[in-house]
Amino acid sequence: MKQIEQLQKIISNSDNIVFFGGAGVSTESGIPDFRSVDGLYNQQYHYPPEMMLSHTFYVEHTAEFFDFYKDKLIFPNAKPNKAHYKLAEIEKAGKLKAVITQNIDGMHQMAGSKTVLELHGSVKGNFCERCGAFFDEEFIIKSSGIPTCSCGGTVKPDVVLYEEGLDNGTMQQARSFISKADVLIVAGTSLVVYPAAGLIDYYRGNNLIIINRAPTPTDERANLLIQANVGEVLGQISIGLR
Hints:
Layout lengths: L1 H11 L4 E5 L27 H4 L2 H6 L1 H11 L9 H11 L3 E6 L5 H5 L4 E3 L2 E8 L5 E2 L1 H6 L12 E5 L8 H13 L2 E5 L20 E4 L12 E3 L3 H5 L8
Parallel strand pairs: 1-2, 1-7, 2-3, 7-8, 8-9
Antiparallel strand pairs: 4-5, 4-6
């Protein structure tokens, strides 16, 4: 496939790559995305998923929020796929400077990536809203009803809900990595969720690569466009060639 050969050449000749990914990076791990035909937003619930994942819903319908959260956003048996492992390999080779992800599943770290910026937080971390105590994912899974700390406070997932702002420090780091990158690989994201999608506007290089099954609003800006599964594409890349 000519596009894979192009991607191979670009990766082989660069040591300043940044990867920016979304839900499509983890679909091959069995974690559904949000906007595809089988995605979370096309399933039927008592309330729209966007409402159930909002800060207001969390506050006003806390028990229902956790029922939905534990059922639809936590996948304790999921494992990293070819995309996650390949990115960790590229980083270990000194080529990939950072993984910037909209995902909350922790798969990149599980695969071995070290520099990971989680724009929307992670299901792996949970904190008591009263005393700040940390709780792992298993605590949430095993809890019944509303997860509660020994101090009586509610244990909230460390994920960014609708109506909540992204962490300024993480966003600043992401902008810095992207603005300095020679190669920006954007994969598995619809590029319609802001402010995250606006990060690619900080890229100044001439190797913008988009890998996504469906078209995105930014396809015309890409120097290389590959419409396929992320894991299938990255799994064909060899590291160490120059």
